[in-house]
């Protein structure tokens, strides 16, 4: 499939699109099982235990590398009493993590030992080996082995149960499943700074176009995840939100000023965008892209060290200042958790 489209922005160039993937947020059911899987099976660090700021009766759990750097983060809203979600069009279908090429056999053996059903390794675009699996709620995941992962050792968490040689090295990419793609392609290429680089069957790959932005930004998959794949399924069913599905994908921007510029471009593109929302660890704007996937533009700063030291990340429930007066009520509402420590189950959060 070869995508053709007309640029709505003409030949205009811009200094700063997005820098790649900031984080991906999905919906889980049981928060303890979520922690056990992403720390105990995948070996990620639990970097922040907080609440959904829009619904503080539910947790918001963040996982990533040692510091929760942008590009390494996957987060979850655990919703125990809502209907199961179903993957379909208008959603992020797959979240892909990066691993070194020599780690494929390790992960296959690990999944066998842990009883994790998986498929692969399969090949994609002749250069990537893929292991496909789902978590306990049905969120579709991939481990993508490529030589570029060698340049991302900083994203390997060395305090978990997996050696740094084989550890996950942040996010690799996301895959969108859409009924149609033309307007989404225009958004990616004209507004957010992506370029089409390759296609295979009904999968089309886009990556950040650094040449447009000159020397101001050097962001490729070597230093940050900057890949989005689109799969076109015009006759597939629409996805429904709930446990087992992705809630949104957040794209990185370096400063509030760059975020404001991108917001202006998105508005001119004809999409409704929220005002800037303070998420404590980053500032965010939200909008639905033309295929109905919820996108966020999140700033790199201030990051997860704004309210905890590095050694303390993920060791207790942290609330924003405006929710501290309600801490007693919130803690009574939330289920107790056991948190990991060096791959073992540690003290409870409360």
From TrEMBL:
Asked if DNA repair is a keyword of the record, the answer is: no
Instruction: Tell me where the transmembrane regions lie.
Output: none
What EC class is this? oxidoreductase
Molecular function per GO: dioxygenase activity
- What is the protein's name according to its record? Ring-cleaving dioxygenase MhqO
The EC designation for this entry is 1.13.11.-
Q: Does the keyword Chloroplast apply?
A: no
Gene source species: Candidatus Nitrosocosmicus oleophilus
Q: Which UniProt keywords apply?
A: Dioxygenase, Oxidoreductase
UniProt xrefs under PANTHER family: RING-CLEAVING DIOXYGENASE MHQE-RELATED (PTHR36110)
What InterPro entries does the database record attribute to this sequence? Extradiol_RC_dioxygenase, Glyas_Bleomycin-R_OHBP_Dase, Glyas_Fos-R_dOase_dom, VOC_core
Every VOC domain range: 20-146, 170-300
């Amino acid at each position: 499939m070869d995508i053709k489209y007309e640029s709505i922005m003409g030949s205009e160039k811009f200094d700063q699109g997005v820098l790649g993937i900031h984080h991906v947020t999905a919906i889980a059911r049981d928060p303890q099982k979520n922690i056990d899987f992403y720390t105990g099976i995948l070996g990620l660090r639990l970097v922040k235990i907080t609440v959904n700021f829009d619904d503080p009766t539910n947790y918001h759990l963040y996982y990533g590398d040692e510091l929760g750097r942008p590009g390494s983060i996957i987060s979850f809203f655990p919703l125990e009493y809502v209907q199961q979600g179903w993957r379909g069009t208008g959603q992020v279908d797959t979240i892909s993590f990066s691993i070194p090429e020599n780690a494929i056999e390790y992960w296959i053996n690990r999944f066998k030992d842990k009883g994790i059903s998986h498929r692969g390794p399969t090949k994609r675009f002749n250069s990537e080996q893929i292991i496909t699996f789902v978590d306990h709620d049905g969120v579709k995941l991939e481990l993508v082995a490529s030589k570029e992962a060698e340049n991302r050792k900083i994203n390997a968490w060395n305090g978990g149960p997996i050696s740094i040689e084989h550890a996950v090295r942040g996010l690799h990419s996301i895959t969108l499943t859409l009924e149609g793609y033309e307007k989404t392609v225009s958004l990616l290429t004209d507004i957010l700074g992506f370029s089409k680089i390759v296609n295979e069957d009904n999968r089309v790959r886009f990556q950040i176009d650094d040449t447009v932005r000159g020397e101001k930004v050097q962001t490729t998959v070597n230093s940050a995840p900057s890949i989005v794949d689109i799969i076109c399924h015009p006759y597939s069913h629409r996805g429904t939100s709930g446990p087992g599905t992705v809630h949104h994908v957040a794209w990185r921007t370096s400063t509030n000023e760059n975020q404001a510029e991108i917001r202006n471009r998105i508005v001119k593109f004809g999409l409704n965008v929220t005002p800037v929302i303070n998420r404590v660890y980053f500032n965010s704007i939200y909008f639905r892209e033309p295929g109905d996937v919820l996108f966020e533009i999140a700033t790199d700063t201030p990051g997860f060290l704004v309210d905890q030291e590095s050694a303390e990340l993920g060791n207790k429930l942290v609330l924003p200042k405006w929710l501290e007066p309600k801490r007693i009520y919130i803690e009574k509402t939330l289920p107790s958790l056991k948190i990991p420590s060096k791959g073992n189950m540690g003290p409870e959060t409360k």
